[in-house]
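Troubleshooting log. The previous run stalled partway through. Resubmitting the same two chains, unchanged.
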Amino acid sequence: MSWITIVWSMNAAACLTLAALYLLVWCKQRENWVHLVFSSSAVAAAAIAGFELGMMHSETVGRYEALVRWIHVPVWVLIVSFVSFVRLYLHAGRPWLAWSICGLRTLVLILNFIFTPNLNFREITRLHQFSWWGGEVISVPIGVANPWGTLSSVSLLLLLVFFIDATITVWRRGDRRRALVVGCSMIFGAILAWHVPLVIWGLIEIPFFLCFAYSGIVAAMGYELSNDMAQAARLAGRLEASDKRLNLAADSADLGLWEWDIKCNEVWITDKGRSLFGFGASEKLDFDRFRSSLHPEDREPVLKVVQNSLRTGAEYQSEYRVVLPNGKMRWIAGRGHVEFNGNGQPVRMRGASLDITQRKQAELEAARQRNEMAHLSRVTMLGELSGSIAHELNLPLSAILSNAQAGQRVLANGHADLTELKEILNDIVSEDKRAGEVIRHLRLWLKKGEVHQRSLRINKVVQDVLKLIHSDLVNQKVTVNCELARNLPAVTGDPVQLQQVLVNLVVNACDAMADCNTPERRLLIRTETENGNGNGAVLVSVTDRGGSIPEAKMEQIFEPFFTTKAKGMGLGLSVCHTIIAAHRGKLWATNNADRGATFHFSLPIGGSDGEVVITNNAISS
Amino acid sequence: MTAPTPTVFVVDDYAPVRRSISRVLHATGFAVAAFASAEEFLAQYDPRTLGCLVLDVAMPALNGLELQDILAKAGSVLPIIFLTGTADIPKSVQAMKHGASDFLTKPVNDEDLLAAVRVAIEKNRSVRQQQTELSEIRARLATLTPREREVLEYVVTGKLNKQIAGDLGTVEQTVKVHRARVMQKMRVRSVAELVRLTQRCGISAR
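Second attempt completed without errors. Output:
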């Protein structure tokens, strides 16, 4: 055994080793086809080395012919693999060239098996055996070349062009290292391969060493791929470090991080997150498990917000209660982001959750105190309005009594007029309903604690208020003009609290006009839309023709215990201010150009739709 | 001069109450005229009508008390029964001081309302009768000559013809003739009767 056998065998062995390694890599990362392509090219290069060694050691012409015939198979695999590698890995090379090369090579392969003995030779007349560069005795064919073998040369030429073109593209793209290493080795290999036709045409007398031309390319490819893997490993290291940093930050901020794989419906969550939601340490999680941890009242609203994010890609943001396994409640604020695939399908949602129980408790406590204050002020105001309200009740009661007694008399007269009786009964029914309505309003006004945020029309609030204090206005001889805009958008709020604000403003306005002449006691209530920043607002204003407010006191009037009235605690306007602020609106006053002042309040259109409604008994501790 | 059947005027701005009160009165046999405001009532009211007014106190624009004032200033004798939703003492005192016939709080019982209406109508009837008589006496007085009128004023003091003649600086016979004419024109037979008539139309004695 001389150096020739050793070198060719080593070449094959090296190629096979690389092929085995990358095949393993591909098995782990099936989506990375480049590894398979590389592996198959390495196998082919090894096979070519084996065939070449076999040809050099051939004793008979027949054996040589057979080997040349079969070497075309690994060559085909190799060339197709190279072309695929350039396309897949370098993202270069013209597609038509790639297809032509593969097509031509396939044609060569088919023709090779049609011709006898093979595509390259019409016939091999004899084998010339000699010792090459001090090595063992090797065989070189002497024979007549097959003119169809030119096809093989053409494919080699195309391959060279394809490689050069791809290398230029990669170079221009700025990826110089790849162009130099992979591109140049491919060009060099393709040039070296030209020794094959020269040997066949009998121009030179050397053994075929195609395997070296190609294994150079394979080595360059392998070098690039390993570079990528090394980089991936570095990235993985860095990723791990940043992951640790992120976890540290999240843990110290009490954040629970999570990720929801929507397709597989699997939820991954940090340990901190598990303890936030009360999940077991190794419990398998999905969306339904998350939902079941929520407070039953919050499940539907949260689901709606999630569905909205999945549909529109909007940032997920919600606040909800979680019922822990020990029965305690915890407030959580969740934020998240949905990722979509190329088809616009949501695939993943990532986010963070934060324990906001303390903040929520403080908010609820503030809301409770605010509502209590509002209630107290409302009850006081009802006391002041009691005469007016009694009158509002008296009117229908009076009509009912007189109608009923008129009915009795009509019947007693003996000639009952049925039409008249019917009208009497109709009046009784409608008046009874009216009285019931007054009582219902009273009950709502007196009821304590519960605040019902709902979608409402502000014009209805204005009309209800005017009904409630109608007789007060009549007694004070105040004329009310309403300019209520039609088709006003709905706002969200508590109807009773908003009525309270309006009653306060109207009563104040009437008080301000107490010293005016009767024809001057005019009140204007106006509703309109205001197009400010954001989504716009509904604006309500109450204009009187009384005295004006000193500019210096414009802000002060909304402070508690500020009053100009002989009797009165100075709480009305400050309570109104708090109520409107809790509705995310604004309350302010301006002086009119001629006389009197105007109080305005604005409420955001739509309001807090889609948010979890806060109720007073939301936290049990 | 007066209408034969009495009419009850109802003024209330709240339609259901106005209708129900009207029905009670109507079922009892009264003629009813209902109005939604004081202004509407003033525009259509005929002062010669016998009857009474059932009036709501609290109304926008002109309220009940203001209507009472206007009627009083116009010399109306129409009795007013006030209806009020709230038992407001200062208002009821004011109303009664200005001569209201009655002051009822809503809801009002039909018997109370009808009793008040009957009393008011009776009052109106007698006031109107007195007014008729008074105007008749005044018409008779108007037929007297100035001298006869002078003599009348002495006669009602109870003086004798001789004393009157002395006071007027004339003879007893002249005074006697004047007295006879006065008695005849005033259609009275005795001095006592003459005194009663003159007292009713406010003629003071000399």
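Takeaways: The longest strand of chain A covers residues 329-340. Residues 492 and 609 of chain A are 7 Å apart (CA to CA).
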